[in-house]
């Protein structure tokens, strides 16, 4: 049987439930579900019995250096990070060293800038690998759609023979060659995306992310 | 190794939360504890497993803790218990959720449901309840199932935890983070409602 969204919600909040960290509304929702779902109730009882088994806390051995390193190496590339939307005025952004990659004339942004300037909701991400430095700059428009600009550098200069392919969760694919300082993808909405950067036909950088109202989550 | 003090635990935790590349102390300190809890969860769920399964679940647990800028790790509240308990509960949760993704829940539901209801019918018999007087076991189970639907969700949950899952009132209170004095009233109300419901069904 497929898990229902209520089952998933319970399984996601099981620890918080047992530790009494949920709001009363969240607790009521979970208990309503538990009163009708036998499988979740069984899991709750299993978790509770293990949870209260305090005597196990008396002693345990720490892992070796090698074991620790091996675990970290195994998981570090899989850890998802969320970059949240932050607000800054155009003149503040213009002072960021990376901003010139996306705005060739950053000084133009500062002209006439004042405290009353509307703040730009944005996220900046960079990643270095395979000899390429990829910089991504997301900005939100008034209608909450997102513009994504991608710059790719090699040894500090704009990389050549670069093609970018952005695939959206709904299957829509956009592809373009990097001709100017950066490539622009407009009208992105909340969804999963996968950006592939290739150099002379060879895949160099894969960037899977989810765009949401909170920000950009990788992985 | 001796149990860490709360201060030592918080030092290790904060070092990791302040800089994700410095979580090695946290992993070193709790890795084997988490592996042990994963094994115990497999045992409790009566699932056969290999050491590779344990290793995979331990990695999944660490990912669950570190993902989204350590969202789950940041939720730890030292007022509510030790860091070790928080980590092993996440290990248990991760293992259970993973097993649920694989297991045929419908099969489990059909396998034990009837026994549970028959046992509960016996336990709910407080001398006034005529449920056990119904000879046909199938009818008894059906009536109890219908009567349970007429309870509030809180009454239904405590009845199931107490009579189906054999938890004491104190244990139910602990699970629900409620005072134990708040657990008996819904059970008592539920018994009364079930009694009335059974009578009504018998007369019908």
Structure characterization notes:
Chain A contains 6 helices and 12 strands. Chain A has 219 residues and is an alpha+beta fold. In chain A, strand 4 and strand 5 (146-154) form a beta hairpin. Chain A is extended, with a radius of gyration of 23 Å. Mean pLDDT of chain A is 86; it is low at 109-113. By secondary structure, chain B is mainly α. Chain B has helices at residues 6-18, 24-44, 51-74, 83-102, 105-123, 137-149, 153-164, 169-176, 184-203. The radius of gyration of chain B is 22 Å and the shape is elongated. The chains are: A alpha+beta (219), B mainly alpha (204). Chains A and B meet through helix 1, helix 2, helix 3 and helix 4 of A and helix 2, helix 3, helix 4, helix 5 and helix 7 of B.
Q: Which key terms come to mind for this protein?
A:
heterodimer, A: 219 residues, alpha+beta, Immunoglobulin-like, 2 domains, 6-stranded antiparallel beta sheet, 12 strands, 35% strand, B: 204 residues, mainly alpha, Rna Polymerase Sigma Factor, Chain: A, Arc Repressor Mutant, subunit A, 9 helices, 0% strand, elongated
């Amino acid at each position: 049987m497929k898990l229902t969204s209520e089952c998933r919600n319970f399984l996601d909040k099981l620890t918080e439930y047992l530790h009494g960290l949920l709001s009363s509304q969240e607790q009521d929702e979970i208990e309503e579900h538990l009163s009708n779902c036998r499988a979740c109730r069984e899991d709750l009882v299993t978790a509770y019995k293990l949870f209260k088994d305090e005597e196990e806390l008396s002693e345990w051995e720490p892992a070796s250096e090698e074991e620790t390193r091996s675990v970290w190496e195994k998981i570090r590339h899989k850890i998802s990070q969320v970059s949240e939307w932050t607000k800054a005025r155009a003149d503040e952004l213009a002072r960021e060293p990376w901003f010139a990659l996306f705005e060739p004339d950053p000084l133009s942004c500062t002209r006439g800038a004042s405290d009353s300037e509307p703040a730009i909701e944005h996220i900046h991400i960079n990643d270095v690998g395979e000899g390429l430095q990829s910089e991504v700059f997301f900005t939100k428009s008034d209608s909450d759609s997102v513009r994504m600009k991608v710059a790719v550098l090699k040894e500090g200069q704009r990389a050549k023979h670069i093609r970018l392919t952005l695939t959206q969760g709904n299957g829509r694919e956009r592809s373009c060659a990097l001709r100017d300082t950066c490539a622009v993808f407009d009208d992105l909405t909340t969804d999963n995306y996968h950006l592939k950067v290739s150099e002379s036909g060879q895949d160099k950088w894969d960037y899977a992310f989810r765009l949401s109202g909170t920000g950009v989550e990788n992985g | 190794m001796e149990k860490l003090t709360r201060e030592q635990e918080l030092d290790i935790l904060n070092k990791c939360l302040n800089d994700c590349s410095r979580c090695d102390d946290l992993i070193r300190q709790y890795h084997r504890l988490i592996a042990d809890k994963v094994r115990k969860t497999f045992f409790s769920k009566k699932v056969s497993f290999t050491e590779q399964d344990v290793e995979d679940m331990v990695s999944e647990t660490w990912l669950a803790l570190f993902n989204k800028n350590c969202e789950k790790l940041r939720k730890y509240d030292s007022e509510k218990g030790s860091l070790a308990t928080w980590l092993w509960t996440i290990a248990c949760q991760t293992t259970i959720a993973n097993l649920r993704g694989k297991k045929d829940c419908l099969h489990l539901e059909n396998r034990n449901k009837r026994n549970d209801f028959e046992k509960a019918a016996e336990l709910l018999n407080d001398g006034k309840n005529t449920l056990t007087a119904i000879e046909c076991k199938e009818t008894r189970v059906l009536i109890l199932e219908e009567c349970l639907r007429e309870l509030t969700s809180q009454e239904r949950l405590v009845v199931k935890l107490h009579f189906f899952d054999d938890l004491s009132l104190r244990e139910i209170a602990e699970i629900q983070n409620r005072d134990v004095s708040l657990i008996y009233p819904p059970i008592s109300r539920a018994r009364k409602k079930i009694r009335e419901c059974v009578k009504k069904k018998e007369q019908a």
